[in-house]
Amino acid sequence: MKIAFLGPNATFTDIAVRELFPNDEGIPYITIPDCLDAVIKDEVDACVVPLENALEGSVNITLDYLIHEMKLPILAEVTAPIRQHLMVHPNHQDDWREIEVIYSHSHAIAQCHKFLHNQCKGMKRISVTSTAAAAKYVLEHPEIKAAAIANELAAQEYGLTIAKADIHDFDFNHTRFIVLAKQPLEMVDQKLQVAGNKTTLMITLSEDDRSGALHQVLSAFAWRKLNLSKIESRPTKTGLGNYFFIIDIEMSMDDVLIPGAIAELEALGCTVEVLGSYPYYHLNKN
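That's the Prephenate dehydratase sequence above. Prediction below.
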């Protein structure tokens, strides 16, 4: 199969693809929307995109594009540890503290705020499309006193020297990635063990905006003893104060409990859409 991912080679998303689909071909794309478009246009069989980081929260472009621009079911989720390193061109490995500019993805820069604040004062920070794109840029511009924040694979892929390792603010830095495709796939390395199952719903409240509406929504899950691992509000983009909710249920779609909860919510005037019912995995590599 062909699997689209946020490129170039050696991004964290690339690592997730290599672990999930070791026998398939990963195809790098410049942006997350490009990855989703590739699935819609049948250029690839599936895509893997980041959904949420433990430190920085949801990747809004993934959610917004998935909700507002196209409808692709979530087929799987994988959580991978994230280690961020400061890397430089070999020409500058002995004088990295004289670096003038640091390139990386905006989330990676935010994940390393303490290190940058304490040890990189005066160094300009520029956001690019991915951590690997930052590493590639540093390789291609040795004349610039620049550094990149990226992973170890990116340092190897682009021949950079790691000046400071593990510069992220917190040890528990993980990112959730999701697999999206038009149709169910014969997928995922069989050596990976399923950690559990989830069902993700998008819920829009009734337009009458009555008091206690969200409490009623949560009650539909609570009395059925359905465990919710995540509740997130996102703007509907129809006006200030208008939101829908993304809810993760810690079980796969069944014949009784989840359909019953959906029916109860619809009886309350809510709109419910199933974004996917899928297995999730945990990776130990980064």
